[in-house]
Amino acid sequence: MRKLITISVMDRRSFLVSASAASCMLASIGRVAAENASAPERSLQFDSEFQAIIGSATPVEHGLTVDLPERADNGNFVPITISVESPMTDADYVKTIHLLSTANPVAGVARFHLSPLNGVARVQSRLRLAKSQDVVTLAELSTGDMLIATSFVKVLIGGCGL
Amino acid sequence: MTKPNPRIKLPESAKAGEIIEVKTLITHIMETGNRHDKHGRLISRNIINAFVALFGDVEVFRAEFGPGVSANPYVAFQLRVPGPGAFDFAWTDDQGVTTTAREILNVVT
Question: What residues of chain B lie within 8 A of the CB of A120, using their CB?
């Protein structure tokens, strides 16, 4: 009697998909381990974007509140709420809010332009974060002042292929 | 690719002078330009890069997006209602496609 032997062969596509998913997960695990040891690094692109925005201003850590989760399970959808304490009058209002990532392939995430018409300086959106990192928010006021807030977000599964 | 589909959420009614929240979302892949297809070729970037909101033909909010904004970009902002009127929203992507939406605000006295 002959015994039937079935051999399951993975086709090329499913192999590639599972291989890339596995390498992606391994990479994030490696990153988390590495990041626990040291402070998060900042990309060169972040440094130059940051300098271009602040110019000669000295940003102060005051009046700018950024709500981001401390731990993001999915780096593809990270909710953010930005609020600035501002009277939003013609004499004193928030002109622009800059959102920068320190470790994504592209540092500039978004820029929001406001005016006294808004009444309240509060903006919500959702970000992609490739890995655990600092998110830097800058608020440019009509008075010429610049506010800054830095939030560290630990990303468990990065926005892969970002 | 499917056609971008905008969704707007306004309060059911508002009074002049009141501050309201305007929630906007548009379906869009927000392709970052850093991903490869299954043959290893780079998929070209296509994101919504600009969003603008007008109320009664006056610009009340504007945003520029990079690839770090999630797919189906969601933005909520505030507005002090100047009086009765309608919102006009426009989203533009890297391929030059602009999607618009108009939404009338129900202003009560």
Answer: 19, 78, 80
- Does any CB of chain A come closer than 8 Å to the CB of residue B58? yes
Residues of A within 8 A of B36 (CB-CB) are 161
In whole angstroms, what is the distance from residue A158 CA to residue A78 CA? Answer: 11
Rounded to the nearest 5 degrees, what angle is found at the Cα of B23, between the Cα atoms of B22 and B25? 145
What is the ipTM for the molecules in this complex?
A: 0.95
Residue A34 has pLDDT above 70, yes or no: no
Does this model's pTM top 0.90? My answer is: no
- Contact list in B for residue A121 (CB cut-off 8 A) is 78
Measured CA to CA in angstroms, residue A41 lies from A18, A20, A95, A133, A135 at distances of 29, 25, 29, 8, 12
pLDDT, tens digit, for every residue of A59-70? 999 999 999 999
Distance from the A36 Cα atom to the nearest Cα atom in chain B, whole angstroms: 23
Burial label for A5, CB within 10 Å (0-12, 13-18, 19+), is exposed
**Residues with Cβ < 8 Å from B63, sequence gap 6 or more?**
A110, A111, A112, A113, B50, B51, B52, B75
